């Protein structure tokens, strides 16, 4: 039996530098950066005091107090991105069988920003272990439960099929899209609202990445601090945001005459079983994930037109994934543009994988490869074509997005153009 | 990828860390005898909170199971998960490095509360002393993916690794996820969930759940399906399974303790227990369909048993909606009434109990429950002998998920 | 204790606290050129040791500290930094 095919029919995004798909694509195609000094809290005393923040006013996007009281910032992002994606796909969800509509959303740190906020209240500023519950806010339990994300989004759209929140660190977004792909492929739903969201710009999350020196300390030049693949890269720049895709069984989309952006051709994830934060220099496990997606879609490595990199801008990550892509694509890797949008929108932990998949969908729609901003000085260990600073027109039929996450997760999603299947 | 595959997912290993037993055999003994271990919460800094009763895992010495290099960088919830995973791998005869390719073994966990105790300690350092006092392990101990990552690293497992960060029903979803990974070609998946939600701040976070029982007396705090149902009590712990393709298990001569035959999940909204009736009934029907199982084949039901009147009524009615007249005749049980609901770990403990019940031919009782006010055959007081070939496990989550899983009896190697 | 030298005994205690690695101080003295990795101290463990020392002494250590491969390299670097004042 041929597996059911899965189409992307709607996209939505909340990203630093502009809310919504048009603003997001403008930023990427212009090669502008949205990294700056942190304004969401006073970062005094931190090693890394910069981030890519969203200028986000929930009221401007139709979220009233009834929603914002219950939904933390990261869930608000997801709601706005989901509204855009559902509107974009043109489905009248009220007319669909709700038991065939699924939700699969990722988040690495979920409600930690609210958890930290209330922790300060109940602990008298970190003074007591036996915290005082009377100081807590009434909705705290919603921040405690990671499944609040998928639950709130499912309720908004009346989805009653399988609803899940995925949390695999920084591959959460890719994996949420991957699980959604499987959900439709296996016939457990016909439509899936898929994506990821995180709003991790808070003292505890910044401090924990400070502690392992993973974030860039380039506080004097935030606009140029995120430098994936550049010889002078010195860590990632924290970001925030959300992206949502509407995935739909291909025949279901065709039957209603929907615009199909592309198909999900394959998805795979493996563990590196090596280290919770460390990466090998060989990238064997990521290469295996890439190989698996190519096998699933029956796409030859030489048919890959663009690799959207994890490209966090840490020393080890960029070396690791350069090795992985060379292992999978062979000599063709040198002819394949590979860029990191984290240079522009920062690294929003679990959200970024979904934001990057949306960037890939847009790249295919526009037939333009987004650049790696700030890339100036080549690193001998990173010797591929990273599309320095300027977007590049290119025929894009098969596009790969890859990611690595704390815990050892190595994931890949392959997007194929509607005419891009070779067999 | 093996040549011959049955497409059926076998359970070949079970590891348990529960309030009523730190090992699988001790757990089954308590479950079979209907022992209740619910008690006043004794953990440090919790005594003043209005949540009084829970199922605490007591006497658990993590260093007896896990190397200190792993212990320093992980929370209690991962200690439970690593200990249970180790026991499950032993049980499956797969301890030490797995034979064959490291890519042939994957890891999936469900997590609903994360590393709360570790996180609270680091938050206290940050806000009490300053950001420089936050240690390097906060970045890997607090988040929901910690247990999957550590089990993968500790065992050298490079297969598909995943985390369902979910409400309670995610425990069943994780097992189904593992089963699908096996059907896609992974030889073995270590799958489970364990939780440690009894640190002071984690408990404060749970106080907002309207379904939480804040009773003072352990004897009456959690009494599902009775007229005195007043909510649930939380618990620590969980269970981990080793699942693999049934043919592969036979080839390597391992006992198949049970097979995962069917699963389905639905969503009906947070705390909308009236609507969970239809959601749960549809999940049951979906799981039966996938298993190719008629309603009459179900020999025992492990209930979700949330313990509020509305939720209990919805579950009892869902059984009849999905199973017809058999829904009022099939033996139903809720061992968790004796030790509490361990969030995502709860359904895994139910699966473990269901496998053991089928192996021993006994439906364990629902501890502390006598006066049932719903039209179901709830097994109480003592275990009931019965030939059990097929078990149905139900779970609903506080955020609105419903799930059902069908298990079939195993076979000796 | 802001200007005292880091001793092998203290390093041994820090390895236990920050990385969960138990090495007897005498054994550590004898194996002072053995890579940290062979003791089971990984990059995060060494970062934890560095953080602990920085907080104790109220000053930053050189950025190379967490890249030291062996206890001897680490002791030399840390003690060089701590005893030179600035």
TrEMBL record, chain C:
InterPro entries, A to Z: ACP-like_sf, PP-bd_ACP, Ppantetheine_attach_site
Which keywords describe this protein according to UniProt? Phosphopantetheine, Phosphoprotein
Q: Which residues form the Carrier domain?
A: 5-82
Q: Which organism is it from?
A: Streptomyces pharetrae CZA14
> Would I find Phosphoprotein among this entry's keywords?
yes
Recorded protein name is Curamycin polyketide synthase
User: Out of the domains of life, which is the source?
Assistant: Bacteria
